[in-house]
Amino acid sequence: MQISQKQLEQVNDRIKALIASDSFYGKKLEEAGMTEVKTVEDFLKLPFSEKKDLRDAYPLGLMTAPEEEIVRIHSSSGTTGKPVIIPYTAKDVDDWAIMFKRCYETAGITNMDRIQITPGYGLWTAGIGFQNGAEKLGAMVIPMGPGNTEKQLEMMQNLKSTVLCSTSSYALLLAEEIEKRGIKQNIHLKKGVIGSERWSDKMRQRIHESLGIELYDIYGLTEIYGPGIGINCEHNTGMHYWDDYIYLEIIDPKTGEPVPDGEMGEIVITTLVKEGAPLIRYRTHDLSRIIPGECPCGRKFPRIDVIMGRTDDMMKIKGVNVFPSQIEEVLGTFKEVNSEYQIRISHLDGKDTMRIYVETTGDNDFNALAQRIAEKVKSVIGFTPIVKIVEVGVLPRSMKKTARVIDERYE
Ligand code: ZN
After folding, report:
1. What is the mean pLDDT of the segment spanning 352-377?
2. Which residue from 10, 80, 85 is spatially nearest to 54, judged by alpha carbons?
């Protein structure tokens, strides 16, 4: 995806606003000598912005519109250090609702739906984002917020909720609770809009089957409005995102260079029309890829794949970026192996080798199984790994995902 002339003009306009307001990023851009962008080359010279910068701007350093135009703030809580505060103008709040309405529409949700919202309200962008979009659509909102499963199920049955907005883990919990109580016949849910964290196909399948609902992945982050900047359509070929509000790039997280469409990398987002706190080339650390070509649905909005994990997990093998989540996904499709695995990367005779150790759950032909797994992994990452099948209990048990990858190249 290359930035269009119109998008360049919008970015240029945001840069002018950042500088004119003497905001945190205005100063940074001035220091970098980037006071305007006219061409794609100029754009690619713009420095990236990072979560750390946003913390440094605490509390209101990001504010780019005059105070009288700011109507709300949201905050993303970090696990460490200062939070990030994002100011919104009335137009930002409205733009966000328009994007979110578009998400609901893309999922086939209408003003005749009853939308039960279980993500949290408050400083957090989740609950209120789901709500504003639903009201813009004209649907009936049931603003539950998180927790209190008893009350959730009661409202879900009595009000005949047709759409559930939630995290994947809460959707699973509700699904299990509904099964356990045998109340499925009282549930009228048709669709689930699930905040996009990485969730396994197995979990998706489980929620889909036990609730009998279609599932949609919605993408977004507090720094960039909140949830609602992209969602998958009925064809489930990745998430469409709204390129009239954001410009999205995929970069190699190590080099910062753009990667070709279709290749996995880090999502970097530039807001095109945001007033309260515009962000230029913001590094999300979320991993995905642009899906090339057009969606069968005919929508012109470009697509990214579902989020594959975080950049911290990336491995570079044979010049290819590989993520443990890709391997995990493949292994999950083989019922002959369990969820334990270990990846060892070594450098022998001038070339990288990746070995994948997996535990078999039954009495299988080790060689044939190894070969089938290797072929399937190759179809996903582009080269053939060495797969070793071992008996159950051979691999070390670890709670930490990172301990499953051992890179012997730099030892
Ligand atoms: Zn589509």
Report:
1. 92
2. 85
CA of 304 to the centre of ligand 1 (A): 11
CA 10 to centroid of ligand 1, rounded, Å: 26
Ligand 1 centroid–CA 238 distance in Å is 8
Tens-digit pLDDT profile for residues 46-61? 999 999 999 999 999 9
What pLDDT score does 353 carry? Answer: 92
The pairing of strands 214-221 and 386-390 is unpaired
pTM for the predicted model, two decimal places: 0.86
247 CA to middle of ligand 1, Å?
A: 18
Given the structure tokens 């022998």, which residue do they identify? 348
DSSP β-ladder status, 163-166 and 191-195 = parallel
Q: Helix 324-332 crosses helix 366-381 at what angle (to 10 degrees)?
A: 130
Q: How many whole angstroms from 104 Cα to the centroid of ligand 1?
A: 13
Say if strands 265-271 and 282-288 run parallel, antiparallel, or are unpaired. Answer: antiparallel
Domains in the chain with CATH codes:
89-312 (3.40.50.12780), 314-410 (3.30.300.30)
State the distance from the centre of ligand 1 to the C-alpha of 105, rounded, in angstroms: 12
What count of other Cβ atoms lies within 10 Å of the Cβ of residue 175?
24
**Distance from Cα 391 to the centre of ligand 1, integer Å:** 43
Q: What is the pLDDT of residue 364?
A: 81
Q: What is the pLDDT of residues 73-110, one digit of tens each?
A: 999 876 567 899 999 999 999 999 999 999 999 999 99
User: Phi first, then psi: what are they for 190, rounded to 5°?
Assistant: -115, -35
pLDDT in tens, 27-43: 999 999 999 999 999 99
Q: How far apart are CA 410 and CA 152, in angstroms?
A: 52
Q: Tell how far the Cα of 237 is from the centroid of ligand 1, in angstroms.
A: 7
Q: What is the CA radius of gyration of the chain?
A: 23
